[in-house]
Design brief:
Layout lengths: L9 E5 L3 E5 L1 E8 L2 E6 L2 E16 L4 E13 L7 H9 L2
Antiparallel strand pairs: 1-2, 2-6, 3-4, 4-5, 5-6
Length: 92
């Protein structure tokens, strides 16, 4: 379901082992312990073990992730460019 902010965002998780997401704009980083995504609703960190991107289609704003999920964290928007906010925190 689309909203006034864009295409909308949906997250479906099955048994903490599979996640299907829509409304994904960009994959900022990924490794087996953490995947960071830019979504229609801001930055989302997915933490866990043996995480991997099973399917990625940015034209359709979709990503499927597999592995053991221990945490889903939506980061508050600090206003302005999200990347600038993250880079600013790293190099402060």
């Amino acid at each position: 379901m689309a909203d006034s902010f864009g295409k909308g965002h949906r997250l479906v998780m099955e048994n903490r082992e599979m996640i299907a997401l829509t409304g994904v704009k960009k994959v900022q980083s990924f490794d087996p312990k953490e995947i960071i995504l830019e979504t229609e609703l801001g930055i989302l960190s997915i933490k866990g073990e043996q995480l991997g991107i099973k399917q990625l289609n940015l034209e359709e704003s979709m990503v499927d992730i597999q592995g053991y999920v221990s945490a889903l964290i939506y980061h508050r928007s600090t206003g302005g460019n999200s990347r600038q906010g993250i880079m600013h925190k790293i190099f402060r």
